[in-house]
Specification:
Length: 426
């Protein structure tokens, strides 16, 4: 026996894994799946992109098939996007057993979700806020749940989720359940929660360091004057990684929009993802990127966790993050599950201390990208003027885009119309 079979995975699940191209378990899967199948609670720390989702979905599905009843498992995710991606994974792996799974997330009518829960699904994949609302409304009974999963546990235990998370965990009888915690980083709060586990909890850490990135990830930088970051980004995307699947991370949604339109003026068509977009817009953008219809995604840290994209070749930190854990999650979008990847940080004169902190905490040395001097000359002689013009045109395009969205909102407001318009006409 080898592969997933050696971990105790049943044949029907092996077929599901093979149909999804999963033939050999990753390190975290190899460690966590047998422990969960043995009935142990799990605290697993592994880098983003290491196969954590399958590490908890596989044992849940196998145990469910042995004794299917009521609400069997609750999987909690910090974002709507991640919840929907995990929902799809559960559907795909559980296809052979008619598993009933429901996603309980914001942006969906509460009545519709209440009706879905009234049909008593086997597995609930949810964000804490919406599921907590449903438990308070008594739309669902979690008292017999056998598994509770906290995916991206460090983020779920942040203050914004604390009350909702407490309401959910209180409703799920601790004596009857296994608790599975998965996270790229293990914070003090995650450790504190793990202390409440029953004896025999299985603990797995991919590496002993607090923060980590995968070995096959090439981590490089350019030292860039703040005003030249646009030009360097344009060079990277048009000269070095053209037509490659790329994610550019920024710190503000305004930067997200400005770069999207600037790069369009330079012939690079991409999509953006930030908190100012409607759910439908975000889902459409993600689908275009995942399907490779668009090769570029420009995103705020809303998207730095939970993006389930098979192959991202390049990550660019347009804005260097001020938290090491954010850096880890960002660059974890590439070099996933053994594949190579490159992360390039654009370090301005204001970011040097942030880069030094990242190097210190990760115990690594970011490498200056090859031929940096030559590229600096190319940018100065060829790209700066083009980018300056593109920036001006992008400014007008962004303004038009925002005004058109504002006009659409005004058109959609029902009750304002006639009387007020008559007054203006007079």
């Amino acid at each position: 026996m080898d592969g997933f079979e050696a971990l105790g995975v049943k044949k029907w699940l092996l077929r599901s894994c093979e149909s999804l191209g999963m033939r050999q378990p990753t390190e975290v899967q190899e460690a966590a799946i047998p422990a969960a199948l043995e009935g142990r609670s799990v605290l697993a720390s592994a880098e983003t992109g290491s196969g954590k989702t399958a590490a908890f979905v596989i044992p849940i599905l196998q145990k469910l098939a042995e004794d299917p009843f009521g609400v069997f498992a609750v999987i909690l995710e910090p974002t709507r996007e991640l919840a929907l991606q995990v929902y799809e994974t559960v559907h795909a792996l559980g296809a052979g057993k008619n598993v009933k799974v429901v996603a309980v997330v914001g942006g969906v009518d509460m009545v519709d979700q209440g009706m879905s829960l009234s049909r008593i699904p086997h597995i609930i994949v949810a964000t804490p806020g919406r599921l907590a609302d449903c438990t308070r409304r008594e739309d669902v009974d979690l008292s017999r749940v056998k598994f509770v999963v906290l995916d991206e546990a460090d983020r779920l235990l942040e203050g914004a989720f604390s009350e909702d998370l407490a309401a959910i965990l209180d409703g799920a009888n601790e004596e009857n359940r296994q608790t599975l915690l998965f996270s790229a980083t293990v914070s003090k709060k995650v450790k504190a929660l793990a202390e409440n586990f029953s004896e025999g909890v299985f603990r797995f850490d991919a590496k002993s360091t607090k923060y980590k990135t995968v070995e096959q990830l090439v981590q490089e930088y350019y030292l860039v004057p703040e005003d030249f970051k646009d030009a360097y980004l344009a060079h990277i995307l048009t000269k070095q990684f053209q037509e490659k699947s790329s994610v550019v991370f920024v710190s503000r949604k305004s930067t997200c929009e400005n770069l999207l339109f600037l790069l369009r003026e330079l012939g690079v068509n991409g999509v953006s993802l930030h908190s100012g977009m409607k759910q439908s817009e975000r889902e459409k953008a993600l689908e275009q990127f995942k399907s490779s219809t668009k090769k570029l995604l420009i995103a705020t840290d809303l998207a730095s966790r939970g993006l389930d994209v098979p192959y991202v070749e390049l990550v660019v930190n347009y804005d260097v993050p001020d938290r090491v854990s954010t850096y880890v999650h960002r660059v974890g979008r590439t070099a996933r599950i053994g594949r190579p990847g490159v992360a390039i940080s654009l370090i301005s004169q204001y970011d040097v201390y942030l880069a030094q902190n990242i190097e210190e905490k990760l115990n690594l040395k970011l490498e200056l990208r090859e031929n940096a001097d030559k590229i600096e000359r190319e940018i100065a002689s060829d790209l700066v003027s083009k980018v300056t013009m593109a920036r001006r045109l992008a400014k007008y395009a962004v303004a038009d885009h925002r005004s058109s969205k504002g006009a659409n909102k005004a058109d959609q407001k029902p009750g304002r119309s006639r009387k007020k318009r008559r007054k203006v006409g007079r």
